[in-house]
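User: Structure please.
Assistant: Input sequence and predicted structure:
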Amino acid sequence: MSEASPWTGRQRPPGGKLCESDAHSCNQGDDRAQEQILILRASKRMGGGMFEMMMVLREENERKAEARRSGEDQRRRDDMLVKEERLLAEKAEAEERQRQDKLEMEERVCRDREEARARTQELLLLTRALTQKE
């Protein structure tokens, strides 16, 4: 009666040996050697699968990290643009304030000149009036 191998699910031949093309102990070894070879192969396959899974996880983590870095870079660029726009707006406001201050100063200087001219005219009229009475 043939018995199934727990690792491969293959039936053992009536002689009890499993033969694989690269199992060098197929003709010489016993069932244990064959089972060990199959166990090693299965563990290598599983290890390869685990390695592939680790590589996939690593690639996914790298992709997520790159997306995060990209998002952070974009946020920094956006922040810099907002800051630059704010600085430009502040500069424009400062220039407008300076322009308004300059206009107000020019108006004040003009008023002061007119007031000084008016006082001078008044003094001239007073001095003429005083000199004509004498």
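Residues 1-134 form one domain.
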